Amino acid sequence: MIEKFNNILKEYQDDFKRIKGIIKYRFKGYIKSFKESLKESKNRQKYLLMASSFVFLILFANIYNSYGYYNDISTIPIIHAKVGNFSLSNYDYTLLVYLENGTKDGTYHLAHNIPTSGYKYKEYSCINNSTLAYDDNLYTTNVTLKKKDVCSIYFDLINEPDITLNIMLETKPDSETYNLSDFIPSYGYIYSHYECKNSDSVLNYDSSLHKVIVSTSKKESCNVYFNKLKSDIEVALFTESFAGSQKYVEMASIPPNATYHLNKESSYCENTKNERNNDNITYQDGYIEITSEEILSCKVYLDKDE
Hints:
By secondary structure, the protein is an alpha+beta fold. The chain has 4 domains: 1-71; 74-157, no CATH class; 163-228, no CATH class; 233-304, no CATH class. The protein contains 1 helix and 21 strands. The protein has one helix at 2-70, and strands at residues 74-77, 93-100, 108-111, 119-126, 131-135, 140-145, 149-157, 163-170, 178-181, 189-196, 202-206, 211-215, 220-228, 233-240, 248-251, 260-262, 268-270, 276-277, 281-284, 287-290, 296-304. The strands form 6 sheets. Strands 14, 15, 16, 17, 18 and 21 form a 6-stranded mixed beta sheet that branches. The chain has a 4-stranded mixed beta sheet with strand order 3-2-7-4, with no helix packed on it. A 4-stranded mixed beta sheet has the order 9-8-13-10, with no helix packed on it. A hairpin with a 4-residue loop joins strand 5 and strand 6.
């Protein structure tokens, strides 16, 4: 009986060991599976954090660039002024000057430059809402813009001007016939004489500055005459309408309200043998210089600076 009991007890002990081994094995498996799951969860969180940081950096960079772009406001001078090292390579600006007609009926005509006498500033308008400031002491304009724009500036006739100047240009050399002009020529002509209504008035012409100075004690009206030069070199001048447009307009003089540079490829001089050359053409500080010992017919193309 005791032996039988011992055998039964031994069988239970063997069964218990087997169950204990199974439980221990499965427990280790659960622990291992739990650790692997925990590791994968940590990796997922790590990757998620890295991805979120990367997306945040991209969004921040785009917002910063957009802010910088839409706040790029620059002030540029238009006539005879400086702006340091600022470059206007991405912009283009055109100034149109309008003078009131003599009929004083509210109509205006397009002029080559800003008047220095006989007119007073009235107003301006810009297609793209740029801001323009006019200096009536220096006869210059400054404009603030963000993109390409075309501005018009208007000047009214002074009711009773103190001095009226009429610029008269000779039509052909030695012809002694003259046409009224709204600008003083910068080349191709030479100052001849003047005529004023009052005999005590004195007029002086500064050829280096292309400027007329009248000394008088009363209201005055003067005609200033310029004779066309007789030269072995004939020059046809073409200036670019808009910077980079490659569209040109023939001009009698270099417009003073813009800056230009010589288009060396398009400009040339041709002699009587129909031989062309452009090495003898230079342009600097608003003056064209052509050197030659023979008769030439020249075409000079000036590109508008940006």
